[in-house]
Design brief:
By secondary structure, this protein is mainly alpha-helical. The chain is 47% helix and 4% strand.
Length: 236
């Protein structure tokens, strides 16, 4: 099925409760302008994402979010990762301090042509931004499918968005923990290495000679993790 940008924009907004008529979206695409900020932002986001080359970087992802949330969110929250913990219905996304490393891991999967739907679920699980994660995630899904030569899919709002959210919840509560348990996720994502001080639990992004938290300089008390470990101390 040929990708329909108007239906994509209409449905992506409608899922979030922004119910602009489809005909207005189609008109905006023809004229490349709109008085509706949600539609206009989508047009800008598509214009931007269609020019993004492989591999997708964190600044590229932030650029998508910045354009989608422009003049809707507070300027300080546009194109920047959240700096607080949030809850989304029954879901509690990871601690905000984990977001940057989790996104790096996710982009490794996105750029190595892993399953786009699985990557989309992981993005929504991470919930890296304070808001507009759904719309950003669906644009990311579009980019990944397009970069893999697949026909981008449109996630429908009418009658199916509850099923969409059910899949996200199912991923959060059952599929993701199982992926970790049986090591399938490790085959999907290239995890960042971290260098942990076993004396105080601080994780460092690179090999160091001295822990910046407790001052430990005993090499025998450092360990290298090739999977992302639980966050038990500040990343320095």
């Amino acid at each position: 099925m040929k990708f329909d940008k108007a239906k994509f924009i209409y449905n992506s907004n409608a899922i979030e409760g922004v119910d602009t008529p489809l005909k207005e979206v189609e008109k905006a695409i023809r004229l490349n302008e709109s008085k509706d900020q949600h539609i206009l932002n989508h047009l800008k986001a598509f214009e931007y994402v269609d020019k993004l080359e492989h591999p997708l970087t964190t600044p590229g992802l932030m650029g998508i979010h910045q354009r989608l949330s422009h003049k809707i969110l507070d300027k300080k929250d546009c194109g920047t990762f959240r700096k607080c913990d949030v809850t989304v219905g029954p879901h509690s996304p990871p601690n905000w301090r984990k977001v940057s490393n989790l996104v790096n891991d996710l982009l490794s999967a996105v750029n190595t042509k892993k399953d786009p739907w699985l990557c989309h679920m992981e993005f929504e699980y991470i919930h890296p931004f304070i808001d507009f994660n759904g719309r950003t995630g669906r644009i990311l899904l579009y980019w990944q499918e397009k970069s893999q030569g697949k026909d981008p899919q449109t996630i429908l709002s009418e009658g199916r968005h509850q099923n969409y959210y059910s899949k996200i919840i199912e991923y959060d509560t059952r599929e993701r923990p199982m992926l970790w348990k049986i090591k399938v996720w490790r085959k999907t994502l290239t995890r960042n290495e971290s260098y942990v001080c076993t004396q105080c639990g601080t994780h460092h992004e690179k090999v160091i000679k001295k822990c910046g938290t407790c001052g430990n300089a005993d090499e025998s008390k450092f360990q290298i993790y090739t999977e992302a470990p639980p966050f038990v101390g500040p990343i320095v």
